[in-house]
Structures are given as structure tokens and as C-alpha cells.
Amino acid sequence: MPRSRWARLTILVAALVLLLVIGGGGVGGWLYVRSLEKQVQKVEAFNGLQEAQRPVRAADSALNFLVVGKDQLEPGEATSRTDTIMLVHVPHSRNQAQVISIPRDTWTTIPESPPEVGGGPRMAKINAAYAWGGTPLLVRTVEEFTGVRIDHVVLVDFVGFAKVIDALGGVDVTVDRPFTSDAAGGQVYQPGVHRMNSAVALEYARERHQFIDGDYSRMRHQQAIVAAVMQEVRRRGILANPAQLDDFLRATAGAVQVDRELPLFDTIWSLRGLGVQDLTMLTTPTTGTGMVGDQSVIFPDTPASAKLFAAVRDDTMEQWLAENPTALHPN
């Protein structure tokens, strides 16, 4: 499945399924959506960040969102893992958006580390920032890595996302390689389309050890789950069924957290003209994988990344995309 499908739904979830409501909602629909705002948890995303340490704001009122997918705690872990990190750039025109995936294993400098490993800046995988310092440290790390000012943060909880799947009564997922599910009692899912409940679907989205390319398979499978959700919404006509729509929206609201500074529904309204056809999917340039000690990591292509993120800062992504057509993911 193309990366674009995962990014698309993340934006839809982050916008509280704006694209599912605005079309036929009218004033009543808008008031209903506003009523869900209290169900969206708020987080302190920028606590402790010093203005002098941060990049300047984007040119011409462009917006940059950090979208983070969080997974459940493993035994012995004190904080959730961040399996998905994306920078979403919305230009001043508000007529398009670029979604730039940052691989979670990207090897970079984390500005702070726990006292037991030194306390100061330390090279590590980029997702260590969230484990070491929560959302504020992840924001600071991504800002230093990209040189792009983060305006707002959206966190999507994969466990909460299971409730979205439950609200749909399961989804049809396209499996690309044989997969053995413990949640389904050891059932082997061969390549093809299979009906999955939330337990099996999330197990499939998390699994990496059964597949030779590990995290790359996990990324594809997350995309497959999200694509399946969107297909199920369309297939069942959720928009035309008030009861089902209510369940779906409330489950979606429970799967999202946003920063306290985000004027959620005003932002949604300003982006109401965006459709999936207006999204461009990219990945931070890399030079490939390798080992650092006993860790498998992904090395960023620093010169190429610098040019990409300069275009984000300057709000000149349209020109950058014209000059780098091979960087696009297929839709």
C-alpha cells in the first residue's frame, strides 16, 4: 500500500474527520462537530521550549504540523512509543499540503537525554526523543533536525484507533505476505483480502519480526489498515447513517490528542477545501540503513534533506516538487 494512504487518514483523524462531515452537515453538522471538541484531549506540546532555540515561524502564515502515531506501552516501558512521525506542511494558499514522513529509526542528535545516559545532547534514533522527554522534546528534536518551526502537534493513539475499527464492525485488509496471528488463535493469513477485527488488525499493523524487511513491512501494513478503514467507511455509507456516523466520530475523537494552542475547529474550517487529491506524500531523504553498535538505524541524507526543509521553511514547496519529481510517492 502506498504511504499516502496512511498519511491521508492521519490528517483526516487529526482534523476530526472534517472531510466526512463538512460536505452535508450545514450549520447543524458544524455545531455537532464543535460539540465533540471537549472529547479531544489536549497536551502540553511546547513546555520548556526556549524561543531562542526554535526556528523562525513559517513564511507568509504557512502552517507546519507534527503528526505522531503512538503505540501502546510494552512491559517495562514508562512511555508510549512513536512509530509514526510526520511533518505536514500547509502553505499560505491552503490549497494543498505536503506530508513528509520521518522514519522513526532516523539517526540524529537528541538535544537532551536522561541523566543515566549523560543528560546532554546524544545521538540516537529520533523516536527516542518522545521516550526521553515526551512531546516537547520530540518537537525540539524535529525542529533541530529539520530547521522547521512546528506550529501545532497532533498525536494519534493506535489503541484508541482500535475503537474506530470496532465502530465499523471490522475491516477488509489486503495482506501482502503470509502472517500468523496470535490474536486469531494462530490463524495464518495468506496474501489477499481478509476480514479483520480490531485485535487482529492492530496486531498486523505492529508486527515486524515475521517479515524480512521488518519496520518497512510494519509501515506498509499500517497503511493497509488505514486504507481498509477508509474503504469500509465508504462501503457502509457511514455518512448517510446518523447513528453509525455518531459512533465513528466519537471513536475518532477519542483516538486524537492535540496541543493546547491549536484552535481545533477554526483550523479545520480554514482547511475545509483540502481533499486527498491535494496531498503530496514524501519521505525525508536517506542514504540507507546501517548499524550503530547493536542498533539498526536509518541515516539521513543531510544535504538533500536541507534543501527539502529549506523549501518548507520558505513556503516554496511547489517549486521544490517541480524540481524533484522522483521524490513523490505514488498515489
UniProtKB/TrEMBL annotation:
It comes from the Bacteria. Residues 81-234 form the Cell envelope-related transcriptional attenuator domain. Signal peptide: none annotated. InterPro entries: LytR/CpsA/Psr_CW_biosynth (IPR050922), LytR_CpsA_psr (IPR004474). Pfam families: LytR_cpsA_psr (PF03816). Belongs to the LytR/CpsA/Psr (LCP) family. NCBIfam families: lytR_cpsA_psr (TIGR00350). This is Transcriptional attenuator, LytR family.
